[in-house]
Predict the structure.
Amino acid sequence: MSEEFTLKRISQSEWLLEKSGEMRVPGRIFADIQTIEQLQTDVAEKKEWNALRQVRDVACLPGIVTAALALPDVHPGYGFPIGGVGAFDLKEGVVVVGGVGFDINCGVRLLATPLHKEDLSDVLSELADDLYRTVPAGLGSEGKLRLTLDEIDQLLREGARYVVKRGYGVEEDLVHIEEEGQIPGADPTVVSRLAKQRQFRQVGTLGSGNHYLEVQTVARIIDPEAAAAYGLEEGQVVISIHTGSRALGHQICQDYLKEMEQASHRYQIPIRSKELVCAPILSDEGKRYLSAVACGSNCAFANRQVIAHLVRSSFARILSLAAEKVRTVYDIGHNNVKVEHHLVDGTTRELLVHRKGSTRAFGPGRKESPPAYRAVGHPTLVGGTMGTASYVMRGTDLGMEKAFGSGIHGAGRALSRRKAAKKYWGEDVKSAMAADGIILRAHSLRGVAEEAPGAYKDVERVVHAATDAGINQPVACLRPLLVIKG
């Protein structure tokens, strides 16, 4: 490898990309040896789509603090790697479009029921069919909630709180959503009319790609204290909802890539890739983009809130389970940028933290956690693949110190969607899942092939690396019973 990509091993699952050239800080990578070897191979083969190069490029940005981070699920993204974290000084730093990405506040909501796996044995197929009919999914899917332009603006300002007022869910849900489902500072006037028009009929829709709805069972409790705080027990039936801000978030990113490209030239900020276009945090352009991201985040919270309501209605029809018995454990995003307070070299500093394919994973004692979770830290929700485990994890004190309180968000792709579609057949994937006792309902067999379990890293390896590095702690292992895909 060239000198600019010299990696120094710090521990079994922590590596330092030493500072060189125009890097303002080093890179810090939390990963196992297999992941590191793949990153090095990509460099050796001179692949442009290269996560290690992206870590280096992020480390060159103005105002970055401590290190450019990559977590164990790291793989190439637009600008920032997916699984990438960058924290910036408010006065000297920049806000970066590629540090958030196209699916603003894509995230996961975990719902818990009082049911156990055996309670579903006779109705699982019927439940799968009902959820498939009830929750709109697939490319261009539309929901039943129709909004006017004024109502879209209200939703962008108020997030999940707005749709709760419209009858989708209950106030208690809000306590267990990141930021209580409403990011402050959202200004709908900085979101284009086109972005809003694309969202008129998409609230309450799952979408396509890697988005999913899974009915799961708690297969194993790993951290009894945290599991008790979260109300989880072995054998329990839970539901995971993974989706984001849909077309609105995508359009916000498209709009601001153009605006921030101009800003990068205006403020004479050297840019190493087109998705790292940026502006000073306190500039007019920076403030506008942050406000637009807040709108996109609120849209995603509202979207998952409506889907949760639809899931509750399905469980009520098929299992006669009252809606209030389906409890929100937590809802957290993994494509965000936020102002947070962190301890850096013994001093508490106000930083703008970008997390791209990474979730906030605050450890014990932080006031941002719901009161019931504060002693152990809030949950983080780690998606596996359609045929493998997912995990509930939590932040740690060491994660606060080394990773700005950040956590893994999933297994991380090993193959691109195009390569996966060439390698796998949707029907074969569906049959293999059925052989493992997992029911799949999907709107696109090509989408199933693109999201085949083999297209992703081994989630067990990713979780182990995060645990070994000490930045995240596993709480519970979840296994899928049925999967709804776009």
User: Anything to note?
Assistant: The chain is about 35% helix and 25% strand. The mean pLDDT is 94.
